[in-house]
Amino acid sequence: MKRLILALGLMAGPAMAATGPFISLRNTDFVALLGFLLFVGILLYARVPARITGMLDARATQIRAELDEARALRDEAKALLASYERRQAEVQEQSRRIVDAAKAEAEAAAVQAREDLQASIARRLAAAQDQIASAETAAVRAVREQAVTVAVAAATEILKRQMSAERTSASIDAAIAQVGARLN
Length: 184
What we know:
- This protein is mainly alpha-helical.
- The chain has a domain at 1-46.
- Helices cover 90% and strands 0% of the residues.
- The chain has five helices and no strands.
- It is rod-shaped and about 200 Å long.
- The mean pLDDT is 84.
């Protein structure tokens, strides 16, 4: 038996395998073809291609689901971005309106303050003019009173110098007669 194994080993050696007809165990190409066909047969028997196809289909389904989820997330992100941009535009518009309203209020307050200041100045000016007129009237009255007092004093002095007792009596009688004539 040892000799048979040794003989078969020598016959199947590389130097001996390439000789002879193609369909022979001594031809290495035929042996390689048989080994390849046997390998493919085992793979088909074990349903390896169906398993690989199933795994590839499962992976394709998983990738498709991930892509769909990514698209959904992208769409959600776009919607969220649009919402934030819309809110930002609304906030900017609202802040612009607030600034415009504040400017309008400030201008109105400035106009009102100017009008109030002008009215206050006019009132104070009128009050000052009234005080000046009153002071002028009081000064004129004081001057008149002083002039009357001075005139009376001067007339008294003049009359004292020029009048004698007789003239004084005659003058008093004439004044009484004049008053009597006016009263009637």
